[in-house]
Amino acid sequence: MTHPATDQPKDQSATPFLEVIPLGGMGEIGKNITAYRYGDEIMVVDGGLAFPESHQMGIDLIIPRIDYLQQNAGLIKGWILTHGHEDHIGGLPYILTRMPRVPVYGAPLTLGLVREKLLEFGVKDGEIDLQEADVESRVKIGTHFDVQFIRMTHSIPDNAGYILTTPVGKIIHTGDFKLDEEPRDGKLSDLGKIEQAGKEGVLLLISDSTNAERPGHSVSEAEVARNLETVIAGCKGRVFMTTFASNVNRIQNVIDIAHRQSRRVVMEGRSMLKYAQVAQQVGYLELPDPFLTNDEVGGLQDQQVLYVCTGSQGQPMSVLSRLAFGNHAKIALRRGDSVILSSNPIPGNEEAVNLVINRLYEIGVDVYYPPAYRIHASGHGSQEELATVLNLARPKFFLPWHGEPRHQINHARLAQTLPRPPKRTLIAKNGDVVRLGPDEFKVTGTVPAGAVYVDGLGVGDIGDDVLLDRVSLSQEGVLIMTAVLHPTPSVEVVSRGFARANRDLDNQIRKVALEAVENGLREKRRLEDVRDDMYGAVRRFVRKATGRNPVLIPLLVD
Amino acid sequence: MTHPATDQPKDQSATPFLEVIPLGGMGEIGKNITAYRYGDEIMVVDGGLAFPESHQMGIDLIIPRIDYLQQNAGLIKGWILTHGHEDHIGGLPYILTRMPRVPVYGAPLTLGLVREKLLEFGVKDGEIDLQEADVESRVKIGTHFDVQFIRMTHSIPDNAGYILTTPVGKIIHTGDFKLDEEPRDGKLSDLGKIEQAGKEGVLLLISDSTNAERPGHSVSEAEVARNLETVIAGCKGRVFMTTFASNVNRIQNVIDIAHRQSRRVVMEGRSMLKYAQVAQQVGYLELPDPFLTNDEVGGLQDQQVLYVCTGSQGQPMSVLSRLAFGNHAKIALRRGDSVILSSNPIPGNEEAVNLVINRLYEIGVDVYYPPAYRIHASGHGSQEELATVLNLARPKFFLPWHGEPRHQINHARLAQTLPRPPKRTLIAKNGDVVRLGPDEFKVTGTVPAGAVYVDGLGVGDIGDDVLLDRVSLSQEGVLIMTAVLHPTPSVEVVSRGFARANRDLDNQIRKVALEAVENGLREKRRLEDVRDDMYGAVRRFVRKATGRNPVLIPLLVD
């Protein structure tokens, strides 16, 4: 299925092409990581994680396969990080610790979050060579990669794309972006650099496809803030607001709103506190009043308090879920409170969020959430924004990235409708080796790529076979038959997740199993065959009696 | 938690109140069934099923608990059906077969679908007393219930609400509805009857809350048809269209469009064929050209064929899924084909539908779906439609129904904004006994209500304990330790869904288990205690070594 990537010559001066090798984030939304190779130099971008889909049961998180990087570890000259979201940095503790020590460049907030993460994983300070490079800086990686960061607005500060100048030409990678015309810090996306590069000639554009199916322009953070201000102004009692903990600008806006409306802010939930702390450390969160703890709000009136809490995705252990289900240790919601969800459910979380919202209604609190209230905005640009970048960059070649096939293909189609469409667009997959030269743009091979499952302490010890077993177990449970052969054959039956305790059924199963065993012994069959006989007999009986196919485990004790 | 419902006097003439007892569909969307009791007469409406949520693993479907009806079976005088959707009739084979034989009234298509369903379940013809009553008819149930059906537009033909005239006053139940101003058959919702009842005085309105959070007016079926016509006209090759099989009017529109565009229609998929057949039997599907089978289209050109197929919800065995994943026995999609999803994913099906759409893009077919194409419309009315019904009915009391708490409560709030708001609104739950009199409207008790799980052939033999086991099994798998005590103690370990085969880990677990067993035997502990020791030791070891908590099953063979 995969084969070694390159027959690339060692003599760099003669190398007419570069390779773009997405190891994650291409054909999916999640676990972004991209390698660029020129001659015997490799530069890597990001190292994210993905969250499991519903059939990936029990998996905590998913990181990209990095066999290619491990096999070519000696060629890696440096690493750059575009921003601090989990799908771009969440895999780094697993990845960087398996890599040689090379400079890892990132902006202050991004590095602050990476440091926090490495600390949690017990990686020693200094083991990773983190180098601060703000979103307007320029760094050189190896001898062939010149990286000029570009500030791009997104749903986290310090977000960057970059212009990569290489021996074969210029590549623009937008990173995750929207074109917010009213960002909280007043710092717009640096379209000037993209336009300038476009004039000089861009060989390849790699651009964010997340919202390629959405017409128009994504909502600005400022409009969200204005709507939040109106909603909060209408709340008579306590306010509980949730959003993505990483959305520092949104949280800054809410802190400002609270100040203007004479409410003191309480931060609740581990990740909310962690992001706020890191953001404060790098100077991205200004507090007109210090945060209070829940214990300190006792003297305040209800309309003087605003809680910012975790739980925008209905996570069972989050603050909002515990509030909704009435099992928070210190706080109980009551009629007169307001809950504001400044967020949308991420695909897969709809059911959990819906459950929380319904519980909040049942308690009798007022609940505000989109779309009835326009209090959330995507961090990714819609079609107009994508078109603007394509029009400015005027790339010769185009690689729609950060999207599933539906998003990539609609992004490609959008590009074709513009006045100066790219000469060629590729819909690439993870592991594709995309060869890029002044007149060359094609997939020339593949390297291993895919998902490594993290479950508990195990990294990669769960494969699709184990997941299939979990799916089977989840559907009909497990039924274990233990046959003891001596002195007199007997069978015990134990089940979990199969059916409510039912002595009759158990007895029947035991009888069917025992008959099979006795027949087998009488016919002096081999023990494996006796076990298979028991398995087959019980399987047929259970299917007929119950219409079910539990996972059957036959055990023989000789 | 529950207590017998009523201290209702036997002497009916003196009875000042009626009871409305929702047994399903109140506080949820699904498994609709409502009982009305007046004195010693009960009338029942519908008998639906619900589909499991993601944590209800392996469950095929859910039917309502009907203990109350079973306990009061002798009082049931009749049954009415509002329409043929699964959430209104899907539970009937389980329910009606446990009930005394009483007249069950429904419109032709509804009864046709019920008959089909009873047949599948092996219920003998005539065992259930099905009585045809069209959506403009009037029937008497017992001596106290006068039911006047009202035609209401919805996403299936023959859909009805009803005006129930009782000794305590008039009740209007909308049933599922939208106010489609351009229905396929030209037959509008019969608002005249609602208006007339409103003038005479409506004591209680029970109304569909599904879209109570959506502003405006739901899209009409005619607009969907116009947009489908445009999309299909633009397709150069074969067209594969999917929608809900029960949406007979939509399918009629597509058949008409195909005829106008000189395409022959092929129906693919069991449920598509079933609904089409029943609809034809009752005269609700007119075929300008007979359907072709896939074998008969060989002679036609690509642009002369339109397939109507199952799979709008991404169901794994549906025609569209098999086409998308390339495992349909007879048909292979190819570039140039078009696939049209005239549907939205029902909550819970988003992931499956997304997967199918992405696969279709990968194949290279053109894919059309909402919201980019306005080719689906909800069957339920939005706020303007709900307001219209409230304004016409002008009920004294109001019971928002067919919705989760968020929908019920927003429906209640909407009612309060109208010129003549109801005097009182209740947010009821399944099992609530709502006492209704000329001046009385309150919950006076509860009866058992809730979910009965159907899994394979088992009805009700799976409870929440079994489901919790299934969730545990799905998360970390199962690990079975079999300790054989004689002559020399030994332990075998088997696991499923826990981790990839790992001899080292298995050996360590075996060693830990064996130590616990040997210690226990040495200390001459009781066998249960030895088993618990083994369980505890392995649990601690596994948690520490892997960070996981599989379901552990310790077995001792003495």
From TrEMBL, chains A, B:
Annotated gene: rnj
This protein's record includes keyword Nuclease: yes
UniProt KW keywords: Cytoplasm, Endonuclease, Exonuclease, Hydrolase, Metal-binding, Nuclease, RNA-binding, rRNA processing, Zinc
The protein's Enzyme Commission number: 3.1.-.-
Annotated InterPro entries: Metallo-B-lactamas, RibonucZ/Hydroxyglut_hydro, RMMBL, RNase_J, RNase_J_2, RNase_J_b_CASP, RNase_J_bac, RNase_J_C
Binding-site residues for substrate, renumbered to this chain: 376-380
GO molecular-function terms, A-Z: hydrolase activity
The protein's name in its UniProt record: Ribonuclease J
Compartment(s) of residence: Cytoplasm
SMART domains: Lactamase_B
Subunit field text: Homodimer, may be a subunit of the RNA degradosome.
Membership in a protein family: Belongs to the metallo-beta-lactamase superfamily. RNA-metabolizing metallo-beta-lactamase-like family. Bacterial RNase J subfamily.
Domain Metallo-beta-lactamase positions: 30-228
Function, in words: An RNase that has 5'-3' exonuclease and possibly endonuclease activity. Involved in maturation of rRNA and in some organisms also mRNA maturation and/or decay.
Main location: cytoplasm
Record keyword RNA-binding present: yes
UniProt-listed Pfam families: Lactamase_B, RMMBL, RNase_J_b_CASP, RNase_J_C
